[in-house]
Amino acid sequence: MSGLAQQIFRTSTYCRLACWRHPSNIRYHNTLSTRKGRIGHRFFQNLASENEQKAQKNVPASTSTPGTSNPLEPPQVTAAQERRSNWRMVKNLMVNVWPRNDWKTRGTVILGFAFLVSGKVLNVQVPLLFKQIIDSLNLPIDLSSSATVWTIAGATILGYGAARIGAIVFSELLNAVFANIGQRAVRKVARETFEQLLNMDMRFHLARQTGGLTRAIDRGTKGITFLLQAILFRIAPTALEISMVCGILTYKFGWDFAAITAGTLAAYAWFTIRTTSWRTQFRRDANKADQRAASSSVDSLINFEAVKHFNNERYEVAQYDKHLRDYEQSSVKITTSLAFLNSGQNVIFSTALTMTMLMAAQGVVNGKCKSGIVLSLPLNFLGTIYRELQQNLLDMEVLFNLREDNPPIEDLPGAQPLDLPVDAGKSIRFENVKFAYHPSRPIFTDLSFTIPAGKRVAFVGPSGCGKSTILRLLFRFYEPSSGRILIGDQDISQIQLASLRKSIGVVPQDTPLFHADVMHNVRYGNLEKDEFDVIDAAKKANVHEAILRLPDGYKTKVGERGLMISGGEKQRLAVARVLLKDPPILFFDEATSALDAHTEAELMKNISTALLHKSRTSIFIAHRLRTVVEADLIVVLQDGRVAEQGRHEELLRKGGLYHRMWQQQQAAAELLEVEEPAN
Predict the structure, then answer these.
(1) Of 377, 453, 543, 613, which shows the fewest CB atoms inside 10 Å?
(2) Kind and range of the H or E run holding 108
(3) Averaged confidence pLDDT in the chain
(4) Is residue 191 domain-shared with residue 335, that is, in the same domain?
(5) Residue 7: CA atoms inside 13 Å, Cβ hemisphere, count?
(6) What is the pLDDT of residue 38?
(7) Helices 597-611 and 567-581 meet at what angle, rounded to 10?
(8) Counted domains in the chain
(9) Are residues 543 and 643 in the same domain?
(10) Same domain, yes or no, for 472 and 546?
(11) Each residue of 42-87: pLDDT tens digit?
(12) Do the strands 456-460 and 617-621 form a parallel or antiparallel pair, or are they unpaired?
């Protein structure tokens, strides 16, 4: 919507303003404009605004791990809690508009508001000057004199034109001044949110879905943009303009006219706020349905191989369509309730307009005329803004909930860097550690063991005994409920996270690769290294020759999640990446479980060769016991505790759990060897 003066110029408001002193000016009413154009313009503007809002939806995840609430779906709250939450979001956002100790930004804001006030003062003067032009031209003119339009109303016409131009210029200057502030605020909030998301613990990331998370960020930043624009460019200017017009009306026409104006404002605001609050639930339902549709589609696309393997395309489409149907039903409720809102607003406005017209008619009879029509456009404009503001606050709700309700694991006050020389190393100790992903399913009940510095230590045991959880606790993805984890004499809870994680390198079971070239994926282990260091690490991991055989060598794109290269190549790239990081502690989390026997043997040979270059503490999580027979220490886990530990030969002689597992795997391997020749 353009400035108020431009809107009034296209309406019959001007004609009514011309009645202030001369009732005879009513004859100009039918020659200037009609209200139909204004109503049509406002109708299509509201419709376009509503359609635009429908495109910006809330997308929390639809699944969660046991015992973990959905981190992207806002909880049910009372109206009072919602108001407090909305106010908190606005306050958090306005901190970026008026930042502490940033006088340059504050000066820009002050300059912008100076443009705002100047523009609105001129905007209110436009209809007043137009009235004076009509009054001047309506006076009897002596045709025999040399009087012209210029001599009669020339100065007023120039003032009218200058006021219109000045209002537009100040409005554009305001937009230019605040553009940098608004975009900087959006960038800062989005950056802080993304940084916090990356720092969230594993509970959060296991409970969310990628599609929902990215849509939440996108939707929230769009809501921030609208909120800033609404507050700075629409609500504050319109409120200022209404205040100025009310002052003029009170000064010129008395308190009876001002009372009708104030009552209209109060009724209009009350109805708009109450109805919009009622419509909020429809918006939430539509957001939830849309978020589930987005999560379903992304989940299906990510797992497209499983969809095709089981021929379940129709099922996935049906699931997606179910969520779209729910969204459709909620959207219909949004549209019908919007019709109710607009109808009620128009009833209140039309009632006030009828009362003011009756007063104006009485004024005509008495030789004077009073008009409140100047308020018509600002009043309706505020109703539209409040509705859109409430919708965008809903869109921002998930974004700010992520920032406030899911605090990441952070450094404790006074945390120190990890004192861990690369060459010497230090032991790692778990002391009486208790931990559970879910309260009813404890993983560790009283776990204690020691990993000697510079040794190869393997952890084995039945599935679900918590082997991989050791890495997650050591990396501080989770915090133990009790007990301590120490590296040397330092409790890892007292160590700076960045220092701790920099000292640990991981070769996971499923190597995460970015949709980028091989060079970037290996260099990701240490972004400060150059391509010569990357090639050297690849050679140590015995993957250099395989890379050169790729179509574009180190510049070959590996595809999303590395699907364009083999599993063995992915694992060797993971080894190269961790060698480039060059940490004192290496962790191999079932790094060969997805490989065939030949590739597994080659990879273990590569790992053994790489470990010869430097003495490191190496931790292996293994399912296949033959991959850890050369370990300096094997720790066998069962029922949340250490069942036994020792070297391979010692554990076999004990005849305990490890011995039984070894015999089972050897029998299975012999059976496969017998079946393969037959096939």
Answers:
(1) 613
(2) helix 103-138
(3) 74
(4) yes
(5) 22
(6) 36
(7) 10
(8) 3
(9) no
(10) no
(11) 333 333 333 334 333 333 333 333 344 555 565 566 667 667 767 7
(12) parallel
